[in-house]
Amino acid sequence: MITGWRHPARLVVLAFLAATAAGTALLMLPMSAESGRMTGFMDALFTAASGISGTGLAVVDTGSHWSTFGEVVLLVLWQVGGFGIMTLTSVLALLVSHKLGLHLQLTVKTETNTLNLGQVRAVVAGVVAISLVVEAVGAVVLALRFWLGYGEPFGRALYSGVFHSVSSFNSVGLALYPDSLVRYATDPWVCLPIVVVAVLGGLGFPVLFELLRRRRRKRWSLHTRITVPVYLGLMAFGTLVVLVVEWGRAGTLGPFGFGDKVLVGLFHGVMFGTAGFNTVDVAQLQPATMLAGDVLMFIGGGSAGTTGGIKVTTFALLAYVLLAEVRAEPSVHVMGRRISAEVQRQAVTVALLGVGVVMAATLVLLATSSFRLDDVLFETTAAFGGVGLSSGITADLSVTGQLVVIVLMFIGRVGPITLVSALALRERRRRYELPEERPIVG
Amino acid sequence: MITGWRHPARLVVLAFLAATAAGTALLMLPMSAESGRMTGFMDALFTAASGISGTGLAVVDTGSHWSTFGEVVLLVLWQVGGFGIMTLTSVLALLVSHKLGLHLQLTVKTETNTLNLGQVRAVVAGVVAISLVVEAVGAVVLALRFWLGYGEPFGRALYSGVFHSVSSFNSVGLALYPDSLVRYATDPWVCLPIVVVAVLGGLGFPVLFELLRRRRRKRWSLHTRITVPVYLGLMAFGTLVVLVVEWGRAGTLGPFGFGDKVLVGLFHGVMFGTAGFNTVDVAQLQPATMLAGDVLMFIGGGSAGTTGGIKVTTFALLAYVLLAEVRAEPSVHVMGRRISAEVQRQAVTVALLGVGVVMAATLVLLATSSFRLDDVLFETTAAFGGVGLSSGITADLSVTGQLVVIVLMFIGRVGPITLVSALALRERRRRYELPEERPIVG
Ligand SMILES: [K+]
Ligand SMILES: [K+]
Fold first, then answer.
1. Helix B312-326 to helix B222-246 angle, to the nearest 10 degrees?
2. Can you point out the beta strands (E) in B41-130?
3. DSSP secondary-structure letter at B434?
4. Do B408 and B386 form a contact (C-beta atoms < 8 A)?
5. Looking at beta carbons, which residues of chain A come within 8 Å of B376?
6. B-contacting residues of A 185-244, CB under 8 Å?
7. Which ligand is closest to the CA of B85, given by its number?
8. pLDDT of residue B115
9. TM spans, by residue (chains A, B) (predicted)?
């Protein structure tokens, strides 16, 4: 038994800080760089933080700057970050929710805030097993394509397959090519496996676990029944915006034929909420596409998954609160279940703090640079949402700006769940009740 | 007795539509234009909607396009809009809040949704009296300055004083000069009276009424005790951002001396939350200043005042909800009073719908124009917040774009309070309670 674990949220924060420090040290080693020279502290720190948080924003070009050793360090950072975030947030979620429907024979005692060590082991084993299987399948499919379709040597194709599959599942979105995946824009055998692997990583461990265990939709937990359709709906919205806005634009979808337009549109619609690879030049996207992307990146993916953001369930709960209020219903009902006032308030808190953090960071970046709102808001929402998309300003930010982005990546990845669990696990003081008064709203 | 008035919110919407239609017809008349030719439908519609809603965004130059008759039509539209919004929203607020602390001997029967006609008359009389007195004092101060300080003929100075005072109090922000008030940027005798008149209009009728009646702060209603400090605090934040970001910029504060910088900074810090006059070229503002302005314009001013936006109390309540959650307090307490879950949910709903409407409008404007996010978001938040500031794109928007802005101005002005009162006055169906389930948040 792990007892007296009063602030498990602290563990998450400390683990991420420690891993980032170790990653920074490793990446600074001369052997990590292609040039054989030491990499500067800020570049190494940024790359490590971006890797551990699975954000994938980059200040140096991945393929050309890092040696193969450096790339393996990156892979390990991504995988540790992915395992870590899924395990730790799943454990936190277990502590918070009495019942996740995980069928892990978990009898969580939230009164004492303790988890059986066996339960934690079961989560770790589940996370590792699911991650490795999905990554392996993705890696094999990609490797076969690189080998057979592009004639790459088998070893190189396999390495590339593993690299991009791990990058996808852990929502990193860094590729071995300076233009991300633009060269594969019209190849569904590369794009679609990456989409599938990235979506699986983004759905989050609790959903994946349940999907594997229970075939019948009716028996899914509320969490899964919200996450799956809303996540897919957000991706459909993203795809639609990309297609409508970029359809005839010379810099993006214009040059492609009908089918390829749809493929690229779908790829980017999905990538806003997952890994953040790109198959067109992000700097050429229209402001409308970028704004839609901002919203999708801010929301992120499923809870206890590999993306950042406020998460799909938080967004969906806010929509349900709004719907209940507009319908003048006293309770918030979602798919035959009632949502407690406590959970509603947690969702509101996560969203408000998310907006506050992103707005404050955007204001600081704007004030300390000469970039415009389109690019800066895209950068900050990408950092908060753990999406490695950038219109290209990352490397040109000042040290202050890069530190702000690092903090945002960190907050976006561990912030919401840590916050909610820290709040939910805290004992609530009973207070005397004050008389009610009603200010005018609106 | 006005009985059976089941949907008073409808009255607000209909009154605004009718006034806009009448204003459009009057402004289209040849005699309304300086040129003596008929003004086009879209220009007249936009000007009328902007005037009635007190937004002050403009597609034609006020001073040069409209004849004196046209300007008087504008003044009447602004005044009718100001009277209308303050009266109607005060009445709605009275219907919703059992007790506003207005000491109007109001015994509102919300069960039957009826108001005594005498009560409505008292509100109308109070609104008209306060408006006319504040506007008259502002007009006299401004007229004296224009007459004595600038040597304008007495009649012209008086007309100008009335015009700008009415424009200030009703949060319109349109001036008789093509550069707004840039020529008076360093004249505190023009700027400060306008600031004071605009802030009084923005505070809202319930607050003004209470400030006049009760000298001792301890006896103020919660509404007033929230609105006054938060509104002033938001203005201080705006002033600070303008000063810090624009201090040395050649296009804005750069050319001014220390004292004038502070005056211009204060003026703009206040104007984001009120009328939206400008004393520097808005198009020259830095992106950081514009983003801070976006936030302040989105929030707007006091309830039942002459600004738009989600309103200061809505913003403050969200902050208090967040604070209570972070402190793990089961109830939301504000200054010794408890805020019901119902009111919290109304504030969340107003804010979420506000964000949704502004984001949707921004997306449409971006997709149908070639402007960038800085300018478009500034335009949409200004329209929603009823602030007449623009970086200059209003007249260049497509017809679709202008219609979107018109709808936004309308929603921003009558939306939040109408929504809340429509919700609050509706009977709530009792529903069976469903079993509770807890999705993972964050
Ligand atoms: K990513
Ligand atoms: K205005």
1. 90
2. none
3. P
4. no
5. 287
6. 204, 206, 221-223, 226-227, 241, 244
7. 2
8. 59
9. 12-29, 41-60, 72-96, 122-148, 157-177, 189-209, 230-250, 295-323, 343-367, 401-425
- Are B178 and B66 contacting, i.e. CB atoms less than 8 angstroms apart? no
The angle formed by the CA atoms of residues A131, A137 and A142, to the nearest 5 degrees, is 120
Distance CA B136, CA B142 (A): 10
Single-letter code of the amino acid located at B331: S
Q: In this structure, what DSSP letter does residue B429 have?
A: P
Instruction: Pick the residue from chain B with its C-alpha nearest to A330.
Output: B428
Contact yes or no for A222/A332 (Cβ under 8 A): no
Compute the half-sphere exposure of residue B379: CA atoms within 13 Å on the CB side of its CA.
Answer: 30
Tell me, what's the pLDDT at B311?
Answer: 93
Question: A171's torsion region: left (phi>0), alpha (psi -120 to 50) or beta?
Answer: left
Measure the N-to-C terminal CA separation of chain B; round to a whole number of Å.
Answer: 51
The ipTM estimated for the assembled molecules is: 0.88
Distance from CA of B391 to the nearest CA of A (A): 14
Give DSSP secondary structure letters for B109-124. Answer: BTTTTBB-HHHHHHHH
Question: Tens of pLDDT along B235-251?
Answer: 999 999 999 999 999 99
- The nearest CA of chain B is from the CA of A435 a distance in Å of 5
Residue A377, chain B, CB below 8 Å: the answer is yes
State how far the Cα of A93 lies from the Cα of A421, in Å rounded to an integer.
7
Nearest chain A residue to B367 by CA distance is A288
Nearest CA in chain A to B417: A442
Residue B23 is predicted with a pLDDT of 94
Three-point CA angle B81, B84, B87, nearest 5°: 145
Give the 3-state secondary structure percentages of chain A, helix then strand then coil, rounded to 5.
65, 5, 30
Asked if residue B430 lies in contact with residue B422, where contact means CB atoms within 8 angstroms, the answer is: no
Q: Would an 8 Å CB–CB cutoff place A284 in contact with chain B?
A: no
pLDDT at B424: 64
Cβ neighbours of residue A280 under 8 Å, at least 6 residues apart?
A182, A185, A246, A251, A252, A253, A264, A268
Contact A142, A193 (CB under 8 A): yes
Is there a contact between B348 and A348 if contact means CB atoms under 8 Å apart? Answer: yes
**Could you report the per-residue pLDDT of B103-124, keeping only the tens digit for each?**
333 333 333 445 567 777 888 8
Nearest CA in chain B to A322: B349
Please list, in sequence order, all residues whose beta carbon lies within 8 angstroms of the beta carbon of residue B357, skipping any fewer than 6 positions away: B384, B408, B411, B415
| Sign of the CA dihedral running A141, A145, A148, A152 | negative
| Measured distance CA(B15)–CA(B21) in Å, rounded | 10
Alpha-carbon torsion angle B277, B280, B284, B285, nearest 10:
-70
DSSP per residue over A348-417, as a string? Answer: HHHHHHHHHHHHHHHHHHHHTSS--HHHHHHHHHHHHHT----SS-GGGS-HHHHHHHHHHHHHHHHHHH
Q: Do B338 and A437 touch (CB under 8 A)?
A: yes
Give the Cα separation of B6 and A381 in Å (integer).
Answer: 44
Determine which helix (DSSP H) or strand (DSSP E) holds B327, and give its type and residue range.
none
Question: What is the rounded average pLDDT of the residues B322-340?
Answer: 85
What letter does residue A31 receive in the DSSP assignment? G
**Closest ligand to Cα A386:** 1
Instruction: From residue B412, give the alpha-carbon distance in Å to each of A80, A353, B24, B302, B406.
Output: 48, 24, 20, 13, 10
